[in-house]
Amino acid sequence: ENPASQRVALAAGFHPEGVRRAAGAGRDGDRYDLLAWVRLADDPPGPVPRLLPDLPDGRLTDTVVTLRRLTPADAEVLYRLHTRAEVVATRVRPVAPTRADIDRRCAVAESDWLTGRAADFALCDAVTGTMVGGCALIYDEPATGQAMIGYSLLPGARGRGLATRAVRLLAGWACGPVGLARLWAGTAPWNTASQRVLDRAGFHREGVMRARLPAPTPGARRPDTVLWSFLPTDPHPLPPR
Ligand SMILES: CC(C)(COP(=O)(O)OP(=O)(O)OC[C@H]1O[C@@H](n2cnc3c(N)ncnc32)[C@H](O)[C@@H]1OP(=O)(O)O)[C@@H](O)C(=O)NCCC(=O)NCCS
User: Fold this and answer.
1) Do 78 and 123 contact (CB within 8 A), yes or no?
2) Which protein residue has the closest C-alpha to ligand 1 atom 13?
3) H/E segment holding residue 146
4) What's the whole-number average pLDDT of the chain?
């Protein structure tokens, strides 16, 4: 949770190696995770190249939607969003997160960005600056240049093309400055709204990954996922409406 220090480590040529769970000890005996940053004797002096660069001017915008990095101040809205039943239903395990889960996610968002694990965004109305949803790029396969995206909106902001705009912005950044070879997304077979968003944003439907997700309850069948992809060479359609 100390991104300033992590930026110093990167600038000085230290590579993120991973999380040392509960390696830190507080005065009152509480334990906390530490990130390990390591520089080998023969590593170049630095800075270490980052998988996920900072955003130009701190944001991506098309003048209707703005995406900016998630911060601890966004926890309240993100918690409201991710505990809605229809959003919970789209999680890998359809269980609502706790407020502590969300606080933690917001607290480490900048660190996740710096270590190249994920880019977690607040999705905002570009005019008022109000956060109306969230989206994220999870860099799940850096070795092959592939990452996945997810997104959700508060009900009052739906149906105005905002999700489609956000996905287009994200795809442009991912295939541009980030330099991904392939961006993918998975939707539940019943989630027509999300499939329409991806279709409108220029993604291709690749097929069905059978039994991809864990069973929601013991003994239930594992749900399928519809697989979508976007390549840097795919045309970027104009924003909707
Ligand atoms: C999916 C979600 C992000 C869509 O947000 P949105 O801002 O309403 O989407 P858009 O306004 O950009 O709509 C894009 C298209 O989907 C269509 N659409 C939106 N909601 C729909 C619905 N419930 N059923 C069918 N189509 C729908 C729109 O009409 C539009 O198509 P059009 O351009 O041909 O008119 C939003 O419904 C949501 O947050 N759902 C819960 C979380 C979720 O499903 N996340 C995705 C997980 S994979």
Assistant:
1) no
2) 161
3) strand 146-153
4) 95
**Predicted local distance difference test score (pLDDT) of residue 92:** 92
Q: pLDDT tens digits for 2-49?
A: 999 999 999 999 999 999 999 999 999 999 999 999 999 999 988 999
Q: Which residue type occupies 59? A: R
How far is 226 from 229, CA to CA, in rounded Å?
A: 10
Ligand 1 interacting residues, C-beta cut-off 6 A: 86-87, 90, 150-153, 158-164, 187, 191-194, 196-197, 200, 240
Other Cβ atoms closer than 10 A to 240? 16
Walk me through the domains of the chain, giving residue ranges and CATH numbers: 1-49 (no CATH), 51-230 (3.40.630.30)
- Residue 78 zone, left/alpha/beta (φ > 0; ψ -120 to 50; rest): alpha
Amino acid 10: pLDDT: 97
